[in-house]
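Structure in, sequence out. Go:
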């Protein structure tokens, strides 16, 4: 049975790798590829705005009606529409497909997290083991998932860099334009700085064709090869429905839990830090100083480090505990943020363009694997609502970052990111304290493991 569980996790992870090879590659390019009138960043704002609403209300009712597997399949299909919308980018194509993708994001991620959590708990029950075994399995499953998933940043960005490097119209960047790169850049300066020449349209069509193809492969993988482990649960729910409002608002009701409230700042920061790297770093540092064809190469470094560290941290969390890993992530992000405040990007600083995404990827591996696992541990009886809240508040971070992207100078956005990190480092210790001294029945920690008290 362990082999069957591993097959499901590997195939599910492979499907997400294919899907986000397409979406992740497009997301990294939006702020530069569709920079006219801020259309690319606006489309990302619409995605995460729709995802916030979706995560609040949709996942619980959809998962209980369709089951995790078919919720994932349907949501993946919606993601493919975004690649299609980019074939002819405009307000009439990008905005509707962004809204469709955002609406599917909440159910997709909640169903994935619920599927992994359900698999871990079922396996622990079969073994006759306690909740600590379920937690160890959950950490392992999330580590495997994110180790594979984060590699999508490598493949998606590798595709874009290889294809765009064939462009014969790559412009030289004049030295005087480089003064606007980095924190010297404000929105009004963007059009006169750096190398923002759009790639040849034929190359754009080639890239989007590849992205659409791998997106469809993702849908087929999950539909054909992932087992429907909660089929009976979904069937029972359809035959004996709970009150609609009760299920529909399950995500909102969980906000009454103090543990969730203390997790929110760190979850929001997770969205802020990812969106900063994808939106601000790629545009204001890489594209400005090197050109759009270099985005893929630098973000490959992020994806590779994120993937490797996700696997490692998923394995060692049971020995180190989460606190040590969260401290490592915070220190890594703090060092990168301070570096971005003082660094003036220049083509001669080639190593730095790759070092920062690498360190950022190591930190992101902690935020992704450990925050996800934490939601699964703290709310084992409300997994759909818990993971919907995770995606909701992470999406709030994305929405905030992409929403104010066109209005603030980069230095302001860097300070806002630093402030969000500081707030999350205040609330997380309070959460640990609440868990350790909480009332009977609350999950307590023993390094990476848990036990019922």
């Amino acid at each position: 049975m362990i082999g069957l569980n591993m097959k499901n996790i590997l195939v599910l992870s492979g499907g997400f790798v294919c899907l986000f090879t397409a979406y992740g590659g497009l997301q990294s390019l939006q702020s530069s590829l569709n920079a006219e009138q801020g259309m690319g960043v606006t489309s990302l704002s619409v995605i995460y705005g729709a995802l916030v609403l979706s995560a609040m209300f949709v996942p619980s009712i959809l998962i209980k009606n369709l089951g995790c597997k078919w919720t994932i399949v349907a949501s993946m299909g919606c993601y493919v529409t975004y690649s299609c919308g980019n074939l002819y980018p405009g307000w009439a194509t990008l905005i509707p497909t962004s809204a469709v993708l955002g609406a599917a994001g909440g159910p997709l991620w909640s169903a994935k997290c619920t599927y992994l959590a359900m698999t871990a708990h079922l396996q622990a029950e079969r073994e006759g083991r306690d909740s600590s075994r379920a937690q160890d399995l959950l950490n392992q499953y999330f580590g495997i998932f994110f180790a594979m998933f984060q590699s999508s940043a490598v493949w998606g960005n590798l595709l874009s860099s290889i294809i765009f490097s064939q462009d014969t119209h790559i412009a030289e960047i004049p030295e005087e334009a480089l003064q606007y790169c980095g924190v010297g850049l404000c929105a009004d300066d963007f059009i006169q700085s750096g190398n923002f020449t759009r790639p040849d349209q034929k190359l754009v069509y080639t890239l989007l064709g590849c992205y659409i193809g791998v997106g469809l492969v993702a849908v087929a993988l999950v539909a054909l090869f992932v087992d429907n482990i909660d089929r009976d649960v979904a069937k029972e729910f359809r035959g004996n429905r709970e009150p609609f409002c009760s299920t529909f608002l399950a995500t909102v009701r969980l906000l009454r839990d103090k543990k969730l409230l203390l997790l929110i700042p760190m979850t929001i920061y997770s969205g802020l830090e990812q969106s900063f790297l994808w939106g601000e770093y790629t545009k204001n540092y890489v594209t400005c100083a090197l050109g759009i064809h270099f985005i893929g190469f630098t973000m490959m470094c992020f994806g590779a480090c994120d993937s490797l560290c996700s696997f490692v941290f998923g394995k060692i969390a049971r020995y180190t505990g989460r606190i040590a890993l969260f401290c490592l992530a915070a220190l890594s992000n703090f060092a990168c943020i301070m570096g971005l405040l003082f660094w003036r990007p220049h083509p001669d600083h080639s190593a730095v363009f790759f070092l920062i995404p690498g360190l950022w990827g190591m930190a992101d591996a902690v935020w992704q694997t450990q925050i996800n696992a934490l939601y699964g541990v703290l709310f084992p009886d409300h997994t759909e609502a818990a993971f919907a809240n995770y995606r909701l508040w992470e999406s709030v971070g994305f929405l905030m970052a992409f929403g104010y992207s066109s209005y603030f100078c980069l230095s302001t956005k860097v300070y806002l990111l630093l402030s969000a990190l500081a707030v999350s480092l205040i609330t997380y210790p309070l959460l640990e304290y609440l868990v350790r001294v909480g009332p009977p029945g609350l999950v307590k920690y023993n390094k990476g493991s848990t036990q019922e008290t």
